[in-house]
Design goal:
The chain contains 7 helices and 15 strands. The chain has 271 residues and is an alpha+beta fold. Strands 4-3-5-6-7-8-9-10 form an 8-stranded mixed sheet, with helices on both faces. It has a 5-stranded mixed sheet with strand order 12-11-13-15-14, sandwiched between helices. Helix 1 packs antiparallel against helix 2 and helix 5 packs parallel to helix 6. The longest helix has 23 residues.
Length: 271
């Protein structure tokens, strides 16, 4: 039985993600420019990232003023309700800046530290993914109605399609390229989409057999991790650990452990 509070949180998360995604899709200026940089000169923030986060936090605060926030573009309040919203208002900013379609709004709600609700809206794909803890993972898109998500049956590792991402700090990215070079001969192939939230949802939807990345923040993975797990995928970090900035791995059972083991052997979590 789903907690009625979680149902309410899901409704609010969905509204916030939808409205922010529509703002980003319909309000993107033709002369969109970089407003700031983060970890390096090529790790960018646009004016639209900032506007989308303000929309999300403002909408949620209007309904739930005692909740806390953790957002990529600076939203950070503790709150007093036991609920914290973890927000990436624009996951895949560089794709968005260049006019590529793989970007998304990610909104998750934590209760006492555990993620209980996640919504990922990918406007240019016309798809919305969502999950409530214990209630499965679901999506709407070009198909009719709402579809329950289930990750793919596990193939042999050498037939697995795996996605990854690369950091914007040059030295870290070079190491990640070395890891990918070692992995490629052992897999069907590797993809690089540019949005962690979308990659995690694609694992949930059976479009990928696995995904891994080093350097993710809580807002990058909170919603997508829940959606992947509720679709039957396994997620973690280094062996025995939860997903973290060191390493995030998500994959269909049968691919997860051998992929995680290879990543550990190849030192994917450090320089």
């Amino acid at each position: 039985m789903i907690d009625p509070l979680h149902t309410d949180l899901l409704k609010l998360a969905h509204e916030a993600a939808l409205r922010a995604g529509e703002l980003l899709r319909d309000g993107r200026p033709a002369d969109l420019a970089v407003a700031a940089t983060k970890s390096s000169p090529i790790d960018v923030v646009t004016e639209m990232d900032i506007a989308a986060e303000k929309l999300i936090t403002g909408l949620i605060s209007d309904h739930r003023p005692d909740d806390g926030f953790l957002g990529e573009e600076g939203a950070s309040t503790a709150g007093t309700s036991g609920i914290r919203w973890v927000i990436d208002p624009l996951d895949g900013t560089v794709n968005y800046l260049y006019g590529l379609p793989t970007w998304a709004v990610s909104v998750a709600a934590e209760q006492n530290g555990d993620t209980v609700v996640g919504v990922v809206f990918a406007p240019m794909r016309g798809e919305t993914f969502h999950a409530v803890r214990g209630g499965g993972a679901w999506a709407t898109g070009a198909w009719e109605g709402e579809r329950r998500l289930t990750c793919r049956p596990a193939p042999p590792l050498d037939q697995a399609l795996v996605s990854t991402g690369f950091n914007y700090v040059a030295e870290v990215r070079a190491h990640q390229a070395d890891v990918a070079q070692q992995l490629i001969p052992l897999l069907r192939d590797i993809r690089r989409g540019g949005s962690a939230a979308v990659d995690l949802c694609d694992v949930a939807a059976g479009r990928l057999d696995g995904y891994y990345e080093r350097g993710l923040h809580a807002w990058d993975l909170a919603a997508g991790d829940l959606i992947a797990r509720e679709a039957g995928a396994l997620t973690g970090g280094r062996p025995g650990e939860r997903p973290s900035r060191d390493l995030t791995v998500a994959a269909t059972p049968g691919v997860f452990e051998p992929l995680q083991r290879l990543l550990e052997d190849f030192g994917a979590w450090h320089d």
